């Protein structure tokens, strides 16, 4: 059943809703209320700024599996002892859409995975950003999970190997949706 979201005022809200699979969005972000004749002019001009409704393509898993959060699925997801979730990539920003409780206990709510502005994100080293973007690109192009490991020494002198895994799931309105996990070996 199609759903129309009203009251969208920012690009962030529109991008987030499209990543969630909502294809019918209206609000001041797109246009203020107008007479029917003005609206018909916009439609007649085939304005490229008017986006087409939701279209799910290249699905590895159905989008409904991600967006339908029944208690059994969420319970299994939360039993993972390492941070994991579903994220969306939008050019210079990789942000979580759905995360498990391990992610929430390790990182603050609303923490992005990567952000070119470097604010409030897990990965903020430009070299690591490049590696992760490469992983996302490879996962999308090869339709195969990508895993990279990083070796570091913690404050106690112990060697810790952290692995970051991503797998492409599907695309919604040019937004690529991935599964991700961050775990220590």
Would you kindly provide a brief summary of this structure?
Helix content is about 30%, strand content about 30%.
The portion of residues assigned to helices is 25-40%
The overall strand count is 10
Global geometry: elongated
Oligomer: single chain
Helix segment count?
Answer: 6
Query: From the helix content, strand content and strand pairing, which structural class follows?
Result: alpha+beta
Total count of domains: 2
Under CATH, the homologous superfamily of the largest domain reads PAS domain
Query: What is the highest CATH level, the class of the largest domain?
Result: Alpha Beta
Strand content: 25-35%
Low-confidence parts, pLDDT < 50 over ≥5 residues?
53-59
The CATH architecture of the largest domain can be given as: 2-Layer Sandwich
Taking the alpha carbons of the first and last residues, their distance comes to: 44 Å
How are helices and strands ordered from N to C? EHEHEHHEEHEEHEEE
Mean pLDDT: 76
The name CATH uses for the topology of the largest domain is Beta-Lactamase
Rg from alpha-carbon coordinates: 19 Å
Largest sheet: 8 strands, mixed
């Amino acid at each position: 059943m199609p759903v129309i979201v009203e009251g969208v005022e920012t690009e962030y809200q529109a991008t987030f809703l499209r990543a969630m699979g909502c294809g019918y969005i209206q609000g001041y972000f797109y246009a203020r209320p107008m007479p029917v004749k003005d609206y018909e002019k916009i439609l007649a001009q085939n304005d490229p700024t008017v986006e087409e409704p939701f279209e799910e393509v290249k699905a590895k898993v159905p989008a409904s599996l991600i967006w339908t959060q029944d208690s059994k699925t969420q319970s299994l997801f939360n039993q993972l002892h390492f941070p994991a979730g579903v994220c969306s990539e939008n050019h210079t920003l990789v942000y979580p859409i759905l995360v498990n409780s391990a992610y929430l206990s390790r990182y603050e709510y609303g923490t992005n995975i990567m952000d070119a502005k470097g604010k409030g994100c897990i990965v903020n080293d430009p070299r690591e950003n490049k590696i992760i973007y490469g992983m996302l690109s490879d996962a999308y192009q090869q339709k195969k999970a990508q895993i990279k490991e990083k070796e570091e020494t913690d404050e106690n002198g112990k060697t810790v190997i952290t692995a970051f895994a991503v797998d492409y799931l599907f695309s919604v309105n040019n937004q690529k949706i991935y599964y991700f996990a961050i775990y220590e070996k």
